[in-house]
Amino acid sequence: PQTSTWKVWTEEDVARTLPKRDGNVHKGTYGTGLLVAGSDDMPGSAALAAIGAMRMGIGKLSVFTESGAKNVIAALVPEATYIQRDFSKKIGDLGQKFAGIAIGPGIEPNEAFEAFIAAAFQEPLPVVLDAGALSKRTYPKRTAPVIVTPHPGEFSRMIDIPSKTIAADRIRLASAYAREQGVVVVLKGQYTVIAFPDGSGIVNPTGNGSLAKGGSGDTLTGMLLANICTHDNIKEAVANAVYIHGACADLWIRENGAATLTAHDFSQLLPRVMHKLE
Ligand code: APR
Ligand code: MG
């Protein structure tokens, strides 16, 4: 990629681009997000994504999930509402208008799920795909952005290249995929790489090894959902979510042992990090 269109995202960039929350606003200003996540076996992933979305500033959140997962999420995120999951439902038929949709944490892929994802692409909404929603596929041309959020293992499955090769060439491979498929690639790990379809990109400087624990990726997915609903600019939306996610971990290790961070701690970390950035 043209390195001139790549940059390291900074605290000043976040402070400059974060939507202001003052004045004449109401919950509708920030849109309703749809989170398609969690299952009876993996309810926590949806709860963590929901915490990330609410604390990041989404106006309203609806969770499309299985009934067993619903009770777990409701106890942790009473602000969310629910839609009983049935992948044969069309998003357009779900009876609500959404500003964005995030799909995948805590869901095992199957044919009905894949068909649901394909249907989501037909809707004029930004779509975030993570975890179970990441597979080897091609993406249709659409106006609203698609954001894929693989860790190196998931990206390896998506592009059929060994993780080791990916690790040595993260920017080039993420950028090639973003340009070829027309999607935003968030290639996670230390110094997360964000590649855009136009060849530009961002390297994120925040975050640390305390994030290397199940659940932290699910939280990021929720934060991304919030930001695509609250930002006008998709590049800034993605970069700010990734930066702030890492900044929470950086705040954590200033005061706590690095091994001890859990994803639900983001509930307390996000208010503090946002206070500094807003
Ligand atoms: N430095 C900075 N950030 C890091 C580091 C690090 N050393 N290690 C991890 N992270 C960040 C990543 O950038 C990403 O944002 O933590 C997050 C981890 O996300 P995932 O890898 O998606 O982890 P998560 O989904 O929460 O849990 C792992 O995913 O693939 C499944 O089966 C797998 O159960 C496992 C689960
Ligand atoms: Mg993950």
List its salient traits:
278 residues; alpha/beta; UDP-N-acetylmuramoyl-L-alanine:D-glutamate ligase; 10-stranded mixed sheet; 10 helices; globular; binds adenosine-5-diphosphoribose; binds magnesium ion
What does this structure look like?
The protein is α/β, with parallel strands linked by helices and 278 residues long. The chain has a single domain (3-277), classed as Ribokinase (UDP-N-acetylmuramoyl-L-alanine:D-glutamate ligase). It is 42% helix and 14% strand. The chain is built from ten helices and ten strands. The chain has helices spanning 11-17, 43-56, 67-76, 111-121, 152-159, 163-167, 170-181, 216-230, 234-255, 266-277; strands at 6-8, 32-36, 60-65, 81-84, 100-103, 127-129, 146-148, 184-187, 193-195, 201-203. A ten-stranded mixed sheet has the order 1-10-9-8-7-6-5-2-3-4, sandwiched between helices. α1 crosses α9. The longest helix is centred in the C-terminal third of the chain and has 22 residues, at 234-255. The radius of gyration is 17 Å and the shape is globular. The two termini are 32 Å apart. Adenosine-5-diphosphoribose is lined by residues 131, 151, 188-190, 192, 207-209, 211-212, 214-218, 220, 245-246. Residues 131, 151, 188-190, 192, 207-209, 211-212, 214-218, 220, 245-246 line the site of adenosine-5-diphosphoribose (APR).
